[in-house]
Design goal:
- The complex is a heterodimer of chains A (about 220) and B (about 250).
- With about 220 residues, chain A is α+β, with helices and mostly antiparallel strands.
- Chain A has nine helices and eight strands.
- Chain A has helices at about 10-20, 25-40, 55-65, 85-95, 110-115, 135-140, 155-160, 180-190, 205-215; strands at about 70-75, 100-105, 120-125, 125-135, 145-155, 165-170, 170-175, 195-200.
- Chain B has about 250 residues and is mainly α.
- Chain B is built from twelve helices and no strands.
- In chain B, helix 4 packs antiparallel against helix 7 (about 100-130), helix 7 (about 100-130) packs antiparallel against helix 12 and helix 8 (about 140-160) packs antiparallel against helix 11 (about 200-215).
- Chain B is globular.
- Chain B starts with 10 loop residues before the first helix and ends in a 5-residue tail after the last helix.
- The chains are: A alpha+beta (about 220), B mainly alpha (about 250).
- The interface of A and B includes residues 14 and 20 of A.
Chain lengths: ~220, ~250
């Protein structure tokens, strides 16, 4: 959020409330509510130039919470936020979800988008390359062939033999398989003594869609 | 059609932003007229000064010389940078992501800034009258209003048109004023006459302002031209902020 750096946090929210059409009598209560919600009470008298990037981001989030809006736009909302506040941001966005509200998040963080969004529009060189409906992707996840990374502590050969086309590097196997094939192979190998430490997608479905949309970059 | 939304509840914040600029004439005046006054008061008393004499005459002369400069300075800074800095510093992002009509926001700012500037300008003769000797207040208010309208519109237009509006504003003022004075003396011809005619009537605005401050009637034709040009510049500036991209 780009704001005059000489403004104070308190004053900024009062100004933004006025611009947003919050009645003057209600503005102080609205300000206090959002200050509490994003926990920037200790910075309320500070000038914006003294705030950290993370606190400025929280101030931006507070602005979005000042009034009931039908359209909310977040521009790189978690940039500069610490891990605790990244999670809090997701919680706040989740509570803001409503059927009659559109929330647009501009972000390069695919993991964040995958967690928060219903639909993702991939833009490259200023043009829309693909629209990914994550609800459909998640519903069809079972049949989707994805790349997996499996960390094995013991009995790696047994699992490796059951995954055609897999590549083995040290204690890690990387393979392409749908969920059913992967689970079958894991189940049989584990019953034969294989000790699996972790199974994770090598890349998310959104990452796959992104790479294919921008031509493998 | 989108309804026009004036951010009325933001008025007090706009007034707060405009106040330092509106106080420029007062600050300049206090410096230029206040310092000689203080110097005189170290040698004599206020009662003696108010009774007349050389010191009062010098102060009145200083007042007469500094008043137009103070008004001009205030009018020049009134709207300069208003729209261009909002773009350059990307304040447009928060200003206009709110339910606010862009041009209405600037009209409101212009109005409140003008009001404050005129009020601050009215303090100059009022203060001088209170301390030294009575001088007319109403002509100064009229002159300030005209200055705000003309130079404010010019500053706003430069800001709406260009990012480097300060340079453009000064160039137009100097070039316009100089060429129009030469033209008025009949020393200009050809291309430069056209340039002098096309540029905002800086010389005419100064002539009207000086006439009013001196207690004379202003040339009606000059006044009409200045008012029409000011209105044209203001409307053009508003159309620019309405139709041109906010971030460029």
């Amino acid at each position: 959020m780009t704001l005059p750096v000489t403004w104070r946090t308190d004053q900024t929210l009062m100004r933004l409330a006025a611009l947003a059409g919050v009645p003057r009598a209600e503005a102080p209560a609205a300000r206090d509510r959002v200050i509490d919600a994003v926990e920037i009470g200790e910075h309320r008298d500070k000038r914006l130039k003294t705030l950290s990037k993370g606190n400025l981001q929280r101030l931006g989030l507070a602005q979005a919470l000042l009034t009931e809006r039908r359209v909310v736009v977040f521009d790189e909302p978690t940039h500069g936020l610490d891990p605790v506040w990244t999670t809090r941001f997701r919680d706040i966005v989740t509570t803001m979800r409503r059927p009659d509200r559109a929330m647009l998040i501009a972000s390069h963080n695919l993991d964040e988008l995958e967690r928060l969004c219903d639909r993702v529009v991939i833009i490259d060189k200023g043009r829309i390359q693909r629209v990914v409906d994550l609800r459909n992707v998640q519903a069809g996840e079972g049949a989707l062939v994805r790349r997996w990374r499996i960390k094995v502590l013991a009995g790696i050969d047994a699992l490796f033999a059951r995954l055609p086309g897999a590549v083995c590097t040290g204690d890690t196997i990387e393979c392409s398989a749908d969920l059913a094939t992967l689970n079958r192979a894991l189940s049989v190998s584990i019953s034969e003594g294989t000790l699996v430490a972790a199974v994770q997608p090598a890349e998310s479905s959104l990452e796959q869609a992104f790479h294919s949309a921008v031509g493998g970059r | 059609m989108t309804p026009i939304r004036f951010p009325l509840s933001y008025l007090r914040w706009q007034a707060r932003d405009a106040l330092p600029k509106a106080l420029v004439p007062l600050g300049f005046f206090l410096l230029m007229v206040g310092l000689p006054l203080v110097a005189f008061l170290q040698r004599t008393t206020l009662a003696v000064l108010r009774a007349g004499g050389d010191q009062q005459r010098i102060l009145v002369q200083t007042y007469d010389q500094m008043l137009p400069v103070a008004l001009l300075l205030g009018a020049v800074v009134l709207m300069s940078g208003v729209s261009s800095l909002d773009r350059e510093r990307q304040h447009v992002r928060f200003l206009f992501s709110q339910p606010v009509t862009t041009w209405a926001y600037y009209v409101q700012y212009f109005a409140v800034a003008t009001l404050l500037y005129v009020a601050a300008s009215a303090l100059l003769p009022a203060l001088f009258g209170l301390i030294v000797t009575p001088v007319p207040v109403v002509p100064v208010i009229r002159a300030a209003l005209l200055s705000a309208f003309f130079f404010g519109s010019l500053g706003f237009l430069c800001g709406a048109l260009l990012n480097r509006d300060g340079i453009a504003f000064i160039l137009v003022m100097i070039l316009g004023g100089t060429l129009q004075q030469i033209d008025a003396a009949g020393q200009l011809s050809g291309f430069w006459t056209v340039v002098a005619d096309v540029l905002p009537p800086v010389a005419d605005a100064s002539a009207v302002r000086s006439a009013w401050i001196d207690g004379r009637a202003a040339d009606t034709e000059d006044l009409r031209l200045v008012l029409a040009y000011s209105l044209g510049m203001l409307v053009t500036a508003l159309l620019l902020v309405r139709h041109r991209p906010l971030v460029r």
